[in-house]
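Practice problem: predict the structure.
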Amino acid sequence: MLSTTSRSTRYSKYESTLDDIDTGSLMDMIRDSIIGSAFNNPYDPDPNSGSSMDELREAILQALMERDLIPEDMLREAQSSKDFSQTRLNQEINKMIQRLQDEGMIRVDDPSRESAVPKGDGGVGNSGDARFELTQKSIDFMGYKTLRDILGGLGKSSAGRHDTREYSSGVEMTGDLKDYEFGDTLNLDVTSTMKNLVSKGLENITESDLVIRQSEYQSSAATVVMLDCSHSMILYGEDRFTPAKQVALALAHMIRHQYAGDTIKFVLFHDSAEQVPLEKLAQVQVGPYHTNTAGGLRLAQQLLKRENKDMKQIVMITDGKPSALTLPDGRIYKNAWGLDPFVLSETLREVAQCRRQGIQINTFMLARDPDLIAFVKKVSEMTNGKAYFTTPHNIGQYVLMDFVNKRVKTVN
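Answer:
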C-alpha cells in the first residue's frame, strides 16, 4: 500500500504527532481526493452506496505523504512492513477516520461488522465491504473551502448578494439620496428633508421637497444546476467533471449562506437524468456514456415549477452536444454521431418550454465542438441566456461571478 519509490515525495522529520492534525485540516487535505472523479468507480451498480473505506485510507495516506507529515520512525516501519494493516501508521489513519465519524464529518456503513472496533484499538476496522458517506457538515465545509479558493483567484473583489442595477425603495440602503416621487416607499432622509422644511417653511412644502434614501433591490432566484456526467467528461486526458462538482458545491454554499431567499437543486444528465441531493453531490460519478440534455431540461423544469421566485434559471455545465433522448415508452434513443435531427428537435422543444415558463438557461461549455457551439448558441437565443467558453481551470470564476452579477430586474 505504501510506495517507497515515489520521486515526487520528500520525507522529513515531523516534529509533532498525527494526533495534532485537527479534523478541519484533515478534511481540507483530502477534499480534492473525495470530490475527484477517480475516487469513485464509474461502473459501480449502486452509485448511492458511498465510497469504500480503503479509498478513504488511501486518500489520507497520500495527503500525509505529500505534506511530509509522517514521523520518520513510523514511516520506516510502514515501508519495511509486509502487512501495512498492522503498522502504527495504519492505526493512526484509523484513528483519524474515527475522529471524522465522531465529529460528524462522515457516516460509515460496514455490513460485515455489527459495530466498529473500540476507539482505543485504532478506530474503525479494515473491512473491504465498509463504505462511507459525507454528512451535511462535511459538504458545507467543502463548499466553503472551494468557494474561498475560487473567489481567491478573483483578487480583492468578493461576491456579495446578487443586487440589481436598478434602485427601488425599501430593501437595502445604498447611501444615495433622491427627491421623492409618487410610488416610492417613504424611506425619508430626515436631515435633508428637515433642511427643506426649514428653508421653505412647512406651509410651502411639496412632494419634491421630501428626500428619500435609495435602496438596492435584491431579487430572489431559484436555480437548477445541470451537470453533464456523460463519459466524455473524464476522457481525452482531462478530468472536467471534478471542477464541475467543485463549482456546484461552492455555488450551493454561497446560496445557502449569503442568499437566504434563494433555492438551488442539482440534476445529473447522461443517458437519462436524475436529481441528486446536495449531500450526495461530492461523490457522484461519471457515467453512463451519452448526453440526454432534453431529459435534464425536463427534470429541471419540474423542479423549478415548485418555486415561487423572482427569477428561475438553469445553469448547464456540459462538454458535449445532445446525443440521447428518453422516448415516451421509457426506452433511451442514442446517437453519438453528429447532431441527430431527432435529438436536436426534441431537445429544442424542451428549451422552448423553458422560454414559455420564463426560465433562463446559461450554459458553460467545456469544449468547442462545432455542433455543441451551434446548439448552445440556439439555446441562448431562445431563452435570452448566456453562453460561456470555459476550461476546468476557470469555470468556477465564470459561474460564480455570472451568478452574482447578471441578475437584473427593472424597477419602475
